[in-house]
Amino acid sequence: MSVVPLLEDDQLCDAAKAVFDDIRKTRGTDFVNNFWRALAHDPVLLKRTWESVKEVMAPGALDPLVKEMIYVAVSATNNCEYCIRSHTAAARAKGMDDAMLMELLAVVGMANETNRLANGLQVPIDAAFLPD
Amino acid sequence: MSVVPLLEDDQLCDAAKAVFDDIRKTRGTDFVNNFWRALAHDPVLLKRTWESVKEVMAPGALDPLVKEMIYVAVSATNNCEYCIRSHTAAARAKGMDDAMLMELLAVVGMANETNRLANGLQVPIDAAFLPD
Amino acid sequence: MSVVPLLEDDQLCDAAKAVFDDIRKTRGTDFVNNFWRALAHDPVLLKRTWESVKEVMAPGALDPLVKEMIYVAVSATNNCEYCIRSHTAAARAKGMDDAMLMELLAVVGMANETNRLANGLQVPIDAAFLPD
Amino acid sequence: MSVVPLLEDDQLCDAAKAVFDDIRKTRGTDFVNNFWRALAHDPVLLKRTWESVKEVMAPGALDPLVKEMIYVAVSATNNCEYCIRSHTAAARAKGMDDAMLMELLAVVGMANETNRLANGLQVPIDAAFLPD
Amino acid sequence: MSVVPLLEDDQLCDAAKAVFDDIRKTRGTDFVNNFWRALAHDPVLLKRTWESVKEVMAPGALDPLVKEMIYVAVSATNNCEYCIRSHTAAARAKGMDDAMLMELLAVVGMANETNRLANGLQVPIDAAFLPD
Amino acid sequence: MSVVPLLEDDQLCDAAKAVFDDIRKTRGTDFVNNFWRALAHDPVLLKRTWESVKEVMAPGALDPLVKEMIYVAVSATNNCEYCIRSHTAAARAKGMDDAMLMELLAVVGMANETNRLANGLQVPIDAAFLPD
After folding, report:
1. How far is CA D8 from CA D4, D5, D32, D37, in A?
2. Of B56, F104, B62, F103, nearest to E48 (Cα)?
3. Is the minimum CB–CB distance between C119 and chain E shorter than 8 Å?
4. What is the domain partition of chain B in residue ranges?
5. pTM of the full predicted structure?
6. D residues 53-112 near F, CB within 8 Å?
7. Which CATH class is domain E60-114?
8. What is the pLDDT of residues D53-76, one digit of tens each?
9. Domain D1-58, what architecture?
10. Of chain D residues 19-48, which have a CB less than 8 A from chain C?
11. pLDDT band with cut points at 50, 70 and 90 for residue B131
12. Check: CATH 1.20.1290.10 for D61-121?
């Protein structure tokens, strides 16, 4: 049970309806997941978040599948179950197979480990790693 | 100043020296960065960490550059300056340009934002995101 | 199921009972929530935590509702479901409506995003932001 | 030294210049802080981040000072020094005095403490805290 | 439901089977918990993780019970429910009673609190705390 | 430079002076570190934090050295440099040598790694780990 009720299509204000229309059109599916149904209580937040996600996750200098895997890496680090589930599903839909998923998580685990070794030892940064 | 002194080459025990040799051989450079010089106080930890990192970051189902970018994503989320600096440098050495870096950070920022929106609203997971 | 059993009123030692009495008197309700029933296994921890929370959340330089919203902001950032649920309920009881909740979470999301952009880019602090 | 060079005004592309103009106009000052000078390498990211921050931090259901204090609370929890410094300065400029700052941090500290007590004990959520 | 199916004994490849044999032999029990059954999808990750955990948690300069309590401390800080549950059980099996658990969590809570006070105030490090 | 000035002994109000006296008496040294000099701006926060830390870190069901190591584990996980430095120094003063420190950090690193593997895979909790 979410903190605010999830809005059904017939409960949306016009501004939220317009965002849902764009989600459906952009994704080519009628399905709108719960995240947006919770955000729909604040159409300004809904619109900004959707447009930001759409812009950030579009093809660019990085491939959309790589972007989804980065999303999973952050979500696993923060332990956001909703985001782990939804972005793992999205990455699979874009071609991530089990071997790729397991390697992704192996990197995430290793980074989380060495982050703490570097923190705990307060290792000074090598000059070689700084920009010229 | 690190919590334990950084060991110079002539201060290494034999076990640590063997790891440094492998780092140099694997990377094709004489340079060994401070992280390993701090870990060298515990040759068991040094060896396990190096061999794990070498295994995890090798080419596999994912490209080494993608792995470096995932490392940066986790390190930026955790704010480990040492790891941000060293893995950003490593990713650049493998081909990441400024446009790719900025897009990578854009995804990291967006994931950190929506992670908290999903947390704060306690959005229930859609059945569509669960494995069959 | 919590890691230690939740204690019922008739299972409390005298020291824990005294804390529960103060919780009830301070809040003007007979209801004592599960958090305190778990802490009651360690009456020293229970007493210190309750007295600290009571002191911190009392009216002072900041309004109690603002304090509850700050509590929600931290709990959403850390993804502590128990604390998100209990402090969102407490903030609502003190007057937070849906519009305020959604704006609160919008700020929390944005701060989590820009925290990582600043981390990932290692932006140096402007002199203007430092105390004189 | 940031990961990418901070751009001076005469190094900005037209799209970035337009954002800087809006920052100056909105804030009524010629000063543009380093965060935006780093983001200026990616004018799309710069524009989206600025417009999002401007929208989120504007007066609404919550007071701008309350929003700045929530920003500080998140940044202190995540330990983003840049954001702690810049948003503490912003909150002071909007009226936060030392007493308010110390109380704010007291709440942040307490929330971070009880978040971990609730986590470690895995306290089940009381029915009273769930929406009807 | 985990993101990948948990593998039963008769679904393991030979490499994974060898790791499960070592888990059973090392722990002196036939029980292999779900964590390893999920990792078994990637026998390289499974083997490295198991051998690392076995090495790290063995008696050494620190007592195995102390190590388990440190594991719980980290897991409670990160709010990883699986690790809180499994390592609290492991610590109990090695002799941690309720009084020790409650004190452990009290320290974890206090550290999380003062970490944020130090962050929020950006307290400079005393020379006395730096190595000579 | 801290966010609020560090108070010298002759700048303390009477309530803060009384806390500093107790710090000196309890620790048997005239040295009072910067953390308390920053908190001294809010004598109520100073007193509560000092008395809480004194109570939590006293000998009890756990040894004070074990408690200091747990403090370091949490601080390294959160990357609070001030707390890493001060509690590593405190643990050393109570008997932690380099071998113990390196093993402590090895456990912290491993826990941070497996926390994310368990998160990313959303491993369900084994019944064996739940209380009866």
Report:
1. 12, 9, 10, 7
2. B56
3. no
4. 1-58, 59-121
5. 0.98
6. 79, 84-85, 88, 98-99, 101-103, 105-106, 109
7. mainly alpha
8. 999 999 999 999 999 999 999 999
9. Up-down Bundle (1.20)
10. 31, 33-35, 38-39, 45
11. confident
12. yes
